[in-house]
Amino acid sequence: IANGKCYILESKKVNRNSKGDIRMNANPNTQKEIKQVVTILLNKYHNRDPFFIARSIGIECTLLDFNGELPAFSERRNVDDRGRIYINQKYGSYARKILCGHELGHLCLHGDYKDTFFDSDIEPIKEYEANYFAVMLMPYIISNKTILHFSIEAFNRYMVHRVNYAERFDIIKL
């Protein structure tokens, strides 16, 4: 993080297993770099709340009433724009934090994107990186050891499930 802007992380080429799933441990450097970015944020802001961190960086966070199933998206209008995060207000507080952490991950890690992050064709690795960022920021979502047993696609599916059923699993008071 420099001058209030998030670190930009480029996705690296990864290996696939026999099913075509990308394995988590195929790219440990990316995981390490994501952990470093999260550590910098935690050391600077002393807070794990993605809304707090986003606003501290200068990223606007807005709850909206989306007509449809879109849970959240983020955008950056130009290279100097710190970005905005939009979250569907139909979700409860726990799911909103997961979604905000995920979108904050896109804005911090994928600075090469100058557009909106809700393209259904977004690369699975970029979705994984944003999900991994959210989990490193908020480790109560899932343990780091458990993540290693998932393929990237399975982890991404798990995170979608976690958001959709977050209120049922919300044992932790946030």
Question: What report would you give on this structure?
Answer:
The protein is mainly α and 174 residues long. It is built from seven helices and three strands; from the N terminus they run ααβββααααα. A three-stranded mixed β-sheet has the order 1-3-2. Helix 1 packs parallel to helix 4, helix 3 (93-109) crosses helix 4 and helix 4 (124-137) crosses helix 6 (152-164). The protein is globular. The two termini are 26 Å apart. The model is unreliable at 1-5 and 7-26 (pLDDT under 50).
Q: What is the rounded Rg?
A: 15 Å
Structural classification:
mainly alpha
Taking pLDDT < 50 over at least 5 consecutive residues as the criterion, the unreliable ranges are 1-5, 7-26
Give the biggest beta sheet.
Answer: 3 strands, mixed
- Mean pLDDT, to the nearest integer, reads 78
